Amino acid sequence: MDDRLNFIVEWYDPHAALIRRYQFLYYTKDNTVEMYDIKNRRIFLKRSKYDQLELSDLHIGANINIHSRQLKFVDYGDEATKKKLSSTLEKTIAMIKPDAVSKVGHIMDMIFSDGFHMSKAIMAQLSRTDAQRFYAVHQQKPFFNELVDFITSGKVVAMELIGNDAVKHWRTLAGPTDSAVARSEAPNSVRARFGTDKQTNAVHGGDSPENAAKELNIFFGPQPQKNTAKLLDCTCCVIKPHAVSAGHAGKIIIAIQDAGFEVSALQMFNMERANAEEFFEVYKGVVAEYTDMVQELTSGPCIALEITGKGKQTPDEFREFVGPADPEIARHLRPRTLRAVYGQDKIHNGVHCTDLAEDALLETEYFFRILAQ
Ligand SMILES: Nc1ncnc2c1ncn2[C@@H]1O[C@H](COP(=O)(O)OP(=O)(O)OP(=O)(O)O)[C@@H](O)[C@H]1O
């Protein structure tokens, strides 16, 4: 049974208003899952195929939607699973510094292309106090104050990355500290492409799993950073789970920025079914695909973007840019639109964007104020 991974997961049952615990078994050979109700000692989900799941999705702290239930992976279910996964998978922090936030699409694309799994992401503006905590190890260095000035000079994007040997892997992709050295020694690294010098060097990486955990805690811990949504002359774009898991998020953001829009806030979410239903409520009874749309939006992490940059015209211009809801039609009529390029069908159409200009603020608030709380 060495192909069976065993976890303890929790699910918040909204009807009973209590947290239920299950044993979650994942069989890697045939992509099947099985769940066992720990308290009532009975099978909860018979072993069945679940092809959307990948090994890299399974880690402690993950939120995964299985049949519309959002499961939180709280522990390993046995020693063998613990040994197997904790020796291979590692978490790290990647942070895009203020000088390279305008390149967020390109950097995310490099991250996805290199095989990382992204489990959390937020665009934030660090306060001086948090920046000092973040760089506490450099407190005695002569460049400490300058570094804090730099890191608080604009927005940053923090990401939790998971992968084999993730700490070392991300530091290699980031490249040498000095961007000039990076350009001569590691020309394909992030710092070679987007850094300027020793300090203004595009990205940060945790230097050990322990420090990465501390730094991640500053962004995603019990007192998480706030997102940077302006909620003014904006519209809402959601990179759907299928597009995130296919690794298209970076390319989609590049296309959005190249078209002259600004990504003024960004945050990754794991949608609960009730939230997805509420968000898509206007389509209920109107669009035949409503139920499938809800199902898709809860099938994995999505990335919400606040789009600005075209003043009051932002919602209308962005909707034009995204293209018709059906990618088949989009490919026919407007082949350069986002949905023509990244959509598969009406459900898996790459991105959601606000349809009516008057709903744009409400939808942006739904993600960046209500869900973000
Ligand atoms: N001599 C310096 N002058 C100015 N800034 C510096 C200098 N050395 C390092 N820094 C800044 O401090 C950050 C942390 O320095 P460190 O030596 O830990 O580099 P690193 O581990 O490659 O980078 P990071 O920790 O950001 O991933 C650097 O990324 C850079 O922004």
TrEMBL record:
> Where is each DM10 domain found?
1-89
Q: What is its main location?
A: cytoplasm
Q: Does the keyword Electron transport apply?
A: no
Q: Does the keyword Flavoprotein apply?
A: no
Q: Which UniProt keywords apply?
A: Cell projection, Cytoplasm, Cytoskeleton
Q: Origin, by domain of life?
A: Eukaryota
Tell me the protein family, please: Belongs to the NDK family.
Please give the name of this protein. Nucleoside diphosphate kinase 7-like
